[in-house]
């Protein structure tokens, strides 16, 4: 069945999922090279990760999170533009015939991981924003959760990082409204 999201096709969605997983992994205090390599491998990327890469990827993650934390499309666009200003001229690559053709805005196919992470993420966020004319993602609205998400859906804007957080928030909201009435025990007459 044809997708209603003509622009945000499979490759954009794949980068969205990878970016989200990397951002949430990098937000963990104990994120190290091995943990990041595991996340990358889960997305088919086998590049080795060094401890230098971790520090640089954390800095990149900070800037990408700022886009996802933007209140509206205007400020998200402004933040994406700041990242695109540091990106390289777009080019097509198939990594020497090993992948399908896709656009890169990093300097070269073997650019440092952090440069690739920032460049691929900001291009993906730019395409999503263009397609929907709304912020390309957000920070989870569930109490106490700071995980981020990229919104690839075509329905109403997403608010939670996961189904788990959405359910948790719904249950909490239900309790807030249901408990006060239920807790009042009626005096016997
Ligand atoms: Zn959450």
From TrEMBL:
InterPro entries assigned: ABATE, ABATE_dom_sf, Znf_CGNR
Zinc finger CGNR domain ranges (all copies): 139-176
Domain of life: Bacteria
Pfam families listed in its UniProt record: zf-CGNR
PANTHER family, A to Z: BLL6575 PROTEIN
Name under which the protein is recorded: Zinc finger CGNR domain-containing protein
Organism, as annotated: Nocardiopsis sinuspersici
Source species taxonomy: Bacteria, Bacillati, Actinomycetota, Actinomycetes, Streptosporangiales
